[in-house]
Amino acid sequence: MSEEVKKENTNAKDLTAEIKDLVVEFRTDYGIVQALNSMELEIERGKTLGLVGETGAGKTTTGLSLLRLIPDPPGVIVKGSIKLDGKDILSMSDKEMQDIRGKAVAMIFQDPMTSLDPVMTVENQIAEVIKLHEEGGMEHALTRAREMLELVGIPGSRGSEYPHQFSGGMKQRVVIAMALACNPELLIADEPTTALDVTIQAQVLEMMKGLREKYNTSMLMITHDLGIVAEICDKVSVIYAGHVIEHGTLVDIFKNTRHPYTEGLFNSLPNLENRTAELKPIKGLMPDPSNLPKGCAFCPRCDYAMEICKTEKPKRVYRNDTHYVECHLYNEDNIQEGKVSIR
Amino acid sequence: MSNTAAVHENEQISIKKKSQIVDVWKRLCRNKTAVLGLIIVAILVLIAIFAPIVLDYENQVIKTDYGNALKAPCAAHPFGTDEMGRDILVRVLYATSTSLSIGVVTVIVSLTVGLILGSAAGYFGGKVDMIIMRIMDIFLAIPGILLAICIVASLGNSIINLVIAQAVSAVPTFARVVRGAVMTVRDAEYVEAARAIGAKDSTIIFHDVLPNSLAPIIVQTTLQVASVILSIAGLSFIGLGIPAPRPEWGAMLSASRAYIRDYSYMCLFPGAAIMITILSLNLLGDGLRDALDPRLR
Fold first, then answer.
1. What's phi and psi for A210, nearest 5 deg?
2. Measured between beta carbons, which residues in chain B are less than 8 angstroms from residue A154?
3. Mind telling me how many Å the CA of B175 is from chain A's nearest CA?
4. Best mutation site among B17, B197, B207, B295 for testing chain A: the one with the most A CBs within 10 Å?
5. How many structural domains comprise chain B?
6. b/e sequence A84-109, b meaning 16+ C-beta within 10 Å
7. Domain extent at residue B262
8. pLDDT digit string, tens, across residues A171-224
9. Which candidate from A117, A162, A173 shows the least CB-CB separation from B190?
10. Any CB–CB contact under 8 A between A131 and chain B?
11. In Å, how far is B19's CA from the nearest CA of chain A?
12. Which tens digits make up the pLDDT trace of A80-106?
């Protein structure tokens, strides 16, 4: 597909959030760490985008950049644009950003054990968001806070307790209640279930799904768990070393996997049906982000690496309107053929 | 659905609601040494409040009676009398109010200034931190007692000047403690979460950062009251503290120094008063720290 057609498509979409060509560096004493390398991201209204990748791939940095909360120093946004509802947030004042945070965009943090203030009652913490963004004073905020607690399945009467009196799963519910308190247009969920055990994971995911439908919230689901992606996401971006290497709908990614890295992610999952099947983890580790390979970032770990991979960055190849991959294995002619493992 | 299951689970755990202050109080009561400290501090506070009301300053506290000078402890004078025939018990009790009130006022003043400077330095970091803390370092480089002597010597010998002198030398300590406490909390995930809901810096500092850094500040506050009382005693000892004839523990110690061989009880009682006050404040401070820390619940 040509670049122009692609552009028209973008304009037609109703995007809650859009990141284009974003480069974020962490400038430390030990060198420049490239956290995001021309990162691209699109979230359509009411849809959920899954952001999948290994530890250190830049998932959380992407989430934080949508709130403009990348720690500075050492984080620097070198170039690119971040748009929320079509408005560029990089040119906004601090005051405007404060109005957006919690109201238009809310974030669920990874670890509910540490993301709640230990010396504040949970209802006060939820009320704080409401008070910041809505009229009506403390009384109204507290009433709403208790409603939010009920909404996530915690009796409102327990609102006057402290976070340490709650279990992990309930704390995560509180964090979710806090994030949803002002009906945000975009919810960033940074590995919301990683710290929870599986039964609670299922409950929390089920709840998030229900709430998302109820409020038509767009969502960015940051995770490394492909099961969660399959459960909750509409589209998936696979990122590696701060760059999207494959993007598509659930069907595109799960049934028509193209990139060797995505393939590797699936192979790393245990297979319930075939217990004798050996796990095939991706060999090696993420490349040192302060010293990325010149060509394809995945090249040193790739089973299919060719000469060209070492020197040249792969171009984007579209399989259909929604699915693209950046890998030298593919070109316009062979992209339809099949998975790398079959070839 | 999962929600109803959770509600059900919650109902089974019936938890009595209690206010935070009651909670802290209960935990403080479990700590025997802290209760001892609290009782002594409470008694001292009562003495400090009622001594000036009950005792007649002109006739009982400062009136000299040379006929009764240097009497050993007896029924009429349980702590004995000093070289000018004044009752030592009365003077020790009266001095409680002087020492405690100066200690508390000084600490309130220096705590307020130290809180503002320390939290700004710790929270914002960078240049703000650099400038504030280097100024504090300059103050810390001057020995506290020397600074106090300079201030009292240049401004004159009065209670207000004493408070100023003590407060100036206590501010850097507070700023340091607050800064350290704030820095450990500043990067906590709940502070990041507060930023992510759009809270202003001032809201974050007062709602999230300071309440979570209270423990070391409280301990420092009680210790500082004790150390200010000690400093005042020290200043009075060298004659730069509370102007005579108002009784003050340090001044009484200083006066009794000359008689220590023959009339040792004269320095025993003011000395014991200083020791008990400081010990009880320290016991209370430690107990409060344990009681206030939500992680020890």
1. -60, -45
2. 6-7, 10
3. 22
4. B197
5. 1
6. bbeeebeebeeeebbebbbbbbbbbb
7. 31-296
8. 888 988 888 888 888 999 888 887 777 887 888 888 888 888 888 889 999 988
9. A117
10. no
11. 9
12. 888 888 888 888 888 888 888 888 898
Residues of chain A positioned with their CB less than 8 A from the CB of B4: 153
pLDDT at position B113? 95
Domain with residue B159: its CATH number is 1.10.3720.10
Residue B20 domain-assigned (yes or no) = no
Residue B167 lies in a domain: yes
**Do the chains contact at B192 and A69, CB–CB below 8 Å?**
yes
* A75-84 vs A87-88, strand pairing mode: antiparallel
8 Å CB contact of B197 and A128:
yes
Q: What is the mean pLDDT of chain A?
A: 83
- Nearest residue of chain B to residue A99 (CA atoms): B198
Residue B12 placed within a domain: no
| Burial annotation B166-194 (CB, 10 A radius, 16+ → b, else e) | bbbbbbbbbbbbbbebbbebbebbbbbbb
What percent helix, strand, coil does chain A show, rounded to 5? 35, 25, 40
Residues of chain B with pLDDT under 70: 1-20, 293-297
Does residue B108 form part of some domain? Answer: yes
Measured between CA atoms, how close is B107 to chain A, in angstroms? Answer: 25
Q: What is the ipTM of this complex?
A: 0.73
Size of interface A-B (CB pairs under 8 A): 105
